[in-house]
Amino acid sequence: MTSQFNHLRAIVNQDGAAILDRKSGIISTLNSTGAVIWQALERGEDTETVAQSLATQTGEDIEAIRKDVANFVEALRKQNLLPC
Fold it and tell me: Max alpha carbon distance in the chain (Å)?
């Protein structure tokens, strides 16, 4: 994540993730798939790479996964959990 997001702390396990925004005190939770996406984004992977990886792991349609990943990323941005 970029330095402007140093105020975020995440705990990830097999059940999902909890992300603490230390500025606002708000904790956001993610399911296990959301946690996988979150970790990939933290590593600097782009959304296409994330979608391809999920499609390979799940056998689901890549187009549906691309849309879901894009929607998820947009939701994170709206919650100020990712840069715009």
Answer: 39
Q: What CA–CA distance (Å, rounded) separates 54 from 25?
A: 31
pLDDT (tens digit, 0 to 9) for every residue of the chain, 84 residues total?
A: 545 578 899 999 999 999 999 999 999 999 999 999 999 998 999 999 999 999 999 999 999 999 999 999 999 999 988 876
Angstrom distance (rounded) from CA 36 to CA 32: 6
Strand ranges of the sheet holding 26-30, from the earlier edge strand across to the other edge? 8-13, 16-21, 26-30
49 touches 66 (CB < 8 A)? no
Which residues have CB under 8 Å from 11's CB, separation 6+? 17, 18
Contact yes or no for 38/31 (Cβ under 8 A): no
Q: Which residues does residue 16 pair with via DSSP β-bridges, in sequence order? A: 13
pTM: 0.87
